[in-house]
Amino acid sequence: MQTRKPIVAGQFYPVQHDSCIDEINEYLDQMPVKLSLPEEIAAGIVPHAGWAFSGSLAALVFSAIRQQHEKVHTFIIFGAAHSYYGASPVVYDRGFWVTPLGEIAIDEDAAEAVLDSGSAQSDPAAHAHEHSIEVQIPFIQYLFAGAKILPILVPPTEQAVTLGEVVGDIIKAGKNKKFVCLGSTDLTHYGPRYGFQPMGAGRKAFDWAMNVNDKEFIDLALKLEPKGMLDSAAENYNACGPGAAAAAVSAAKRLGKTSGTLLAHTNSNEVMTGRMGAPGTDSVGYAAIIF
Q1: Which class in CATH covers the domain with range 3-290?
Q2: Which end is more exposed in the chain, N or C (fewer Cβ atoms within 10 Å of the end residue's Cβ)?
Q3: pTM listed for this prediction
Q4: Spacing of C-alpha 53 from chain mean position
Q5: In angstroms, how far is CA 6 from the centroid of its own chain?
Q6: Which residues of the chain have pLDDT under 50?
């Protein structure tokens, strides 16, 4: 049976079973959901950095989903394409993924429906070194026992919008199952490490990255404008997984959503400053959004 083993356990999140659970519970307690939530959550946008930086925001999205839906049959997870350079979205379509919390099964029926639509291709090998989906899996295993997943890497092309529409139609056809779509992306990567410093260095530059550059992408997501998200990311470098986020938003729109809810927004520099008492030279933005 085809099985994808973890590649960033022990680096992006704990490698031990109990440590994973303890850290998830810490994040759930650290940032409880305080905003009013829609009765039905169709999709979300989650960050995918190491848990130490963005785990609390990812937990916020999963906590919101859990509050509204105790049972989710399948999470369709659209991942960033950090090291996959093909034009078409690619599906991990059979078998299992493994994390320190054990195995989680692929929804092979949903995978077949996506592949039959022609909106994506099967390429499990493309997922071998991509972390953007893997870091979400332990949250699902812990909070949604028995849930399956459908991992899809999504390049930042207009095919992301088509894929989201197709997935929305597949979900509407599966009336006896609860699906939730997730788009995995971080936001502006600012600083010398990333070769992106249009506003120079220092606190004002980080504020611009978060409150102007990130905000443009977030606002487009909240207004359910997936094509605008792709265009903004291409022009402003304000997302590393714009295809993944656009696919999730496109699916939510297909499912009748008209707006999103921003649960939280921060960046790695704020996190580091809070912990170490001093800013760094780089910053990455993170947002938690539900639809």
Answers
A1: alpha beta
A2: N
A3: 0.96
A4: 14
A5: 17
A6: none
* CB neighbour burial string for 60-95, b if at least 16 within 10 angstroms, e if fewer: bbbbbbbeeeeebbbbbbbbbbeebeeebbbbbbee
pLDDT score for 178: 98
Contact 188, 237 (CB under 8 A): yes
Tell me which amino acid residue 258 is.
Answer: T
Q: From CA 141, how far away is CA 255, in angstroms rounded?
A: 25
Measured distance CA(149)–CA(162) in Å, rounded: 20
Domain extents in the chain: 3-290
Nearest to 69 by CA among 125, 184, 165, 147: 147
